[in-house]
Write a structure and sequence with these properties.
- The chain has 217 residues and is α+β, with helices and mostly antiparallel strands.
- 54% of the residues lie in helices and 16% in strands.
- It folds into two domains: 3-71, Arc Repressor Mutant, subunit A (Orthogonal Bundle); 77-216, no CATH class.
- The protein contains eleven helices and six strands.
- Strand 1 (47-52) and strand 2 form a beta hairpin.
- The protein starts with a helix and ends with a helix.
């Protein structure tokens, strides 16, 4: 796949749908060139589009990734599988006896998240530690800070197909974020066609508490 088409896929993924004109401006390419790339990506099953009607003028098209397009980006399955096997293998028998498989998995995923928080938290401020952990996992996170607080957009969910069926796997990331940023972070899942994105959100007041606690350490 060409570099231009790779970049177009990234732009579409990060924006959860985008028009030809928007891609053209961001990449400094002629709209006709962008359309040719999109025709190839659509032909090969990486993107699809919906029609967006406007009050005046011709309809516009918004392009989004298909499941094939989402899965064309690197995923983190192997790393998590190795961590999960290690956690379950090292769980004492008395901690498993009489417990459901779901409980054992949740506890194991929670510990994995806690260990990742410790690993990436060394020598970093909490928000920077979350960023480092997500970037290392290939999540392609986008951090948006405003007067309302902080929003962390995960634009390349490493476990997208699994999460769409069962959100238990998100326990790892929720655990990591909770250790680093506290309990009052809202996690929103939006795993549906046309979107690969989930977000973590916290208010300015919550963020200030984290900063104050860190400054006091």
């Amino acid at each position: 796949m060409s570099v231009s088409r790779d970049n177009i896929l990234i732009i579409i993924r990060q924006n959860n749908g985008v028009s030809v004109d928007e891609i053209s401006r961001e990449m400094n390419l002629a709209p006709a060139t962008v359309r040719r790339h999109l025709d190839i990506l659509e032909r090969d099953g990486f993107v699809d589009h919906t029609e967006v009607r406007r009050p005046t003028g011709r309809p516009q098209y918004s392009f989004y990734l298909t499941e094939h397009g989402h899965e064309s980006f690197p995923k983190d399955y192997g790393r998590l599988l190795g961590e999960l096997v290690s956690e379950i293998r090292n769980t004492p028998a008395e901690d498993i006896d009489g417990r459901s498989g779901q409980d054992v998995i949740v506890d194991s995923l929670t510990r994995i998240g806690q260990k990742r928080a410790t690993e990436y938290g060394q020598g970093r401020q909490p928000v920077d530690a979350v960023r480092a952990a997500f970037e290392a996992g290939g999540y392609d996170p986008i951090f948006e800070k405003s007067d309302a607080g902080l929003k962390i957009r995960i634009t390349n969910c490493p476990y997208r197909q699994i999460v769409a069926e069962d959100g238990i796997i998100c326990t790892v990331d929720r655990s990591l974020v909770q250790v680093l940023l506290g309990d009052n972070v809202e996690h929103r899942q939006e795993m549906n066609p046309g979107s690969n994105e989930c977000t973590y959100e916290m208010s300015t007041a919550q963020l200030e508490k984290v900063d104050a606690a860190t400054a006091g350490d």
